[in-house]
Amino acid sequence: MRSSGIPYLLPMLVLSGLFFVLPLVLLILFSFTRDGAVSLQNYAAFFEDPFNVKVLTATARLGLETVAGTTLLGLPVALLYWHSGPKTRQVLVFLSLVPMLTSNVVRTFAWIVILGRQGPISQTLMALGATGAPFSLLFTEFGLVLTMTQIDLPLIILPLVAVLSGTRRDLSDAAATAGAGPWRIFVTILLPLMVPGLLAGWILVFASTSASFVTQAVIGGARNVYVPQLIYREVGILFDWPLASAIAVILLVLTGGTLLALASLARHPRFARYV
Amino acid sequence: MQRALPALDQNTAARSLSSELAQRTGALTVAGLSHSYGSGFAVDGVTFDIPAGEVAALLGPSGCGKSTVLRAIAGLIRPAKGTIALGDTDLLQVPARSRGIGMVFQNYALFPHMTVAENVSYPLACQGVPKQERRARVDEMLRLIQLDSFGRRLPHQLSGGQQQRVAVARALAGRPSLLLLDEPFGALDRALRFDLQVEMLRLQKALGITTLLVTHDQEEAQSLASRLVLMNRGRIEQIDTPSRIYDQPRTLFVNRFIGQTSMLTGRVEGAGPERMPVRLTTGELLDLLRPTRFVSGASVVVTCRPEEVSLFPDAGPGRLAARLIVSIPLGPHVIHDLELTDGTGIRCAQLRAQAPDTLLLGDRIFVAIDPARCHVFPPDAIGGDLHASLEGPSS
After folding, report:
1. Which of A42, B109, B340, B345 has the fewest CB atoms lying closer than 10 Å?
2. Could you tell me which of B359, B304, B301 has the C-alpha nearest to residue B329?
3. A275 interfaces chain B, CB cutoff of 8 Å
4. A179 → closest Cβ in B71, B114, B174
C-alpha cells in the first residue's frame, strides 16, 4: 500500500472532528429532539410563529442588501485595481485589508457615533439644508446595512482582486481595438470574468452578515431582530436549547443553500478560469 | 471530393472579402513618433510608412520600443509627439475603438468566457451589425480559417494553432483597414509556426490589407514582410527589404541582429583612394579593396557572414591564421567555429559537399574573408569593450 500521508494528518483530523464536526452533528441531532423523543416539533414551532418567519426573511433581506451594498462599492475598487500598475495594486490590496485589522466590535461602536444624532451624516445633511432637524440612523435597517457594508467590504474586494490579478490585461486591449468602448468592455469582458470572484464574495458577505450577532444587536437595536438574536434569546433567556438548535440549523440551511446555488453557477465552463 | 470543396470555398470567401476591402485599406504613415514612460523607456522620432496593401515588419530586440509603436498605432497609448495616419485619416484624432484596426495579440487574448463564434463576432457586435448578418460573417470567417465546426467551443478547448487562427479571424471579422500582428507566432512550435505563417501570408495577399507585424524573430519578419523596419533603443536603425538589410546593413547593430556575423576588430592603416588596409588586433593586415570614409588610425570593426568566409590549408595573401574549435553539420551546410590567433571568434559555413572531411578539432588552418562583401563599421556602443581591447596595445 502506498503511503498516503494520512497518519500525519491524523492529529488535525481528530481535532477538526472533535471541535467542528461533532458539535455540528450534536446540534443537528438536538434540533430533532423534544422531551427526549425524536420529533419535528422544534421546526414546526418555529414556522408556526409568524414573527419568526418575519425575522428569517428580514435576515435574508439584510444579507442581500449588504451583498448589494458591498458589490456596489467593491466593483469600482476592483476596476481601479484592474487599471492600476503593480505599485498601486499593492497599495489598493493593503488599503482594503486595513479594515480587517480592527475588530468588528470596535468598528461597530465607531458606527454608533457616525450614525448618531450628532454624527457626521446627520451634521452634513443639516449643513447642506437637506434636513431641518438632526436625525439618527441608529437602530434602523438602513444604518445597519451601511455598517455591515463597510465591515464586509474586504470580503468582496479580495476575491475580485484575486480573479483580476489572474486575468490577462490585454483582454481589455483586445476588446478596445475590436471597437468596444469602456462601458461595453466592462459589461461584456470584465464583469463576466469577475463572476467567480463575485460569487465567492457574495457567499462570504451573505454568511458573515446573516450571522453577525454583535453588529445586528448594537446597530439594529431592539426593533430590528435577526436570526442570531432569536438563537441568543432561546439559549440565554428561555433556555430552550432544542429550539435554538433548530433555528441554528435553519440559518445554516439558508446560507448553505445560497452557497450551493452560487457555487454550482461558478462551476459553469464559461466561468472556469483557464487563462 | 468532400476534401476538395473547402479549399474552393475559402478562395471564394477570400475573394469576396478582398473586393470589399480593396478601397478601404490605405497606406500607414508614422512620422516623428516619440513617447516615454516614467521609467525612461522610450520611443524617439520613429518615422516609417507602409504602402497600401503591403506587409511591413517592425523588428528589434525586446525592449527596443516596437511594442510602444504598435500600441500607439492601435490607440492603446497616446504618444507624446508625432503623427500616425492611415490613408488620409489622422488616426490620433480617432479613439482606439473607431480606428478600424484588427489586431492579433501576443497570446491571442481570446475572451475565455466566450465561444469561438462569439469571439469572432465581437467586433461585429461592437459595430452594431445586425444579428443575421453577424452570423453569416462568422460562418464565413470560420470557413476561411478552416474551423467551421468549432464555433461552439470555448478557447481553452482549442490547440495553440487553432487559437491563433481564431485570433486572426477575430481581427479580420470587422473588416479592418489595417492589420496589426504582435508576435503572433511566438507561442507556437517551429513546425506549426511555418505553416501558419504561409497561411497568414495567403490570407493577407487575398485580402490585400495593409499589415504591420511586430516581432523579435528575424526569420519570421523576413518570411512575412516585404520591408523591415529595424529598431534599437527606441530609434529606427534601418528600413529596407529583407535582402538589402542582410546584404547592406547600415549599422553594426543591424549587421549583428540580422543573420550571423563574425566581428574582427582593427585599425585603418594608410587609407588610399581605392584601398582600405586594416591592421587587425591579431597583427595581420586585411586589405579591403574599396574607397573608405575612415581616416588612418581609426578603430573599426570588420564584419563578415559565415558564407563569406572560406578555408585554406596554407597561408597566402589576405588569409588569416586560425584554429578550428568545433564543426557542426547543419542541414546542407557544415558550420565551422574558428579562432584567430588573438582569440577572436570567426564562423564559416561551407556546403557539406565541399567541406574537407580531414579537418580535426584544434587544427591550424587559414581563413579568407570576401573583401568585396564584408562590411566595416566604427565600433558602437554594443562593442564598448572593443574600445578597451583596441586602446590596450597602443598605449
Report:
1. B345
2. B359
3. yes
4. B174
